[in-house]
Amino acid sequence: MLLHTIKEVREQIKQWKKEGFSIGLVPTMGALHEGHLSLIKKATEQCDKVVVSVFVNPIQFCPGEDLDKYPRTLEADTQMCAQAGVDIVFAPTPTEMYGEGQMKSNDFLTYVIPPFFQVNKLCGKSRVGHFDGVCTVVNKLFNITQPDFAFFGEKDAQQLSIIKKMVKDLNIPVEIIACPIIREDSGLALSSRNKYLSDEDKIHALALSKILNNIKNCYNQGVTDVEALKETAYKFLNENHDLEYLEFLNDEDLEEVSTANDDTRVFIACKVGGVRLIDNIKLG
Ligand code: AMP
């Protein structure tokens, strides 16, 4: 069922809790693809009732980002969810979530701010305030749907790490389930933003997964020096690529490493045809 208001969702969840059902939440911004579906599939296997939220969260977009043009395909999303056995698609308006906002009436003022050491790197560096918006909306979605389990993709590995920390720090009674990255056969990680790519951009976009796979191959052949591994990336990059970062961090605490090991995750962000793409791979 498609619900737009917090009240309706709460009433349904209350009923299900009374009946002893477990609840799974899959937060999304919609424009659903196989990546999202893999999270949904896991949720339906593991939980009695599954809620998918579809909400393009304005407070996680920075000025000049793609908030207005972000793809919105609620009808198709709802159909996909129905076929996948989802019980509730929760698609609130920004006003439902934030009232008139803090600019107009102080309707919304309280943010959840993740720790600096988690946001002063990777996407947090260029997208200032982004993870405040993510943590705040995820917290609200947790409070609205009270899930036993919530499903997040490793595609957004920094986000996943930040949310796990938030759940631990704030004693939120939910178990976070991490789901692997789903890719096209070409290697390109699925993303709603791939819709912005032209056919030619899509070919250039393959550089991200090629760089990551090549680094993993080199690591498997015994190269562990991060500078040497970074060097291997440049042969995949040309004037069609605007590399934002290529970083090697410990998967657990996102601390930078200079010698790679099995716990290292390699993160890349690169603009192709003006579209900002991210990807990552665990070396172990
Ligand atoms: P989004 O709609 O982009 O906010 O993504 C919603 C959720 O789907 C997040 O937890 C993402 O990490 C996850 N997700 C997006 N793309 C993929 C993918 N290619 N593979 C696995 N999970 C994904």
Cα distance spanning the termini: 41 Å
Q: Output the strand order for the largest sheet.
A: 1-4-3-2-5-6
Topology pattern, helix = H, strand = E: EHEHEHEHHHHHEHEHHEEE
Largest sheet: number of strands, sense, barrel closure: 6 strands, parallel
Work out the number of β strands: 9
- Rg (CA only): 19 Å
Bound molecules: adenosine monophosphate
Query: What is the strand content?
Result: 15-25%
Instruction: Quickly count the helices.
Output: 11
Structural classification = alpha/beta
Give a topology summary.
Blueprint: E1 2-3, H1 6-18, E2 23-28, H2 34-46, E3 49-54, H3 74-83, E4 88-90, H4 94-98, H5 101-105, H6 116-119, H7 122-126, H8 130-145, E5 149-153, H9 157-169, E6 175-179, H10 199-220, H11 226-231, E7 241-250, E8 264-272, E9 275-282
Parallel strand pairs: 1-4, 2-3, 2-5, 3-4, 5-6
Antiparallel strand pairs: 7-8, 8-9
The protein binds adenosine monophosphate.
The site of adenosine monophosphate (AMP) has 17 residues, from α2 and β5.
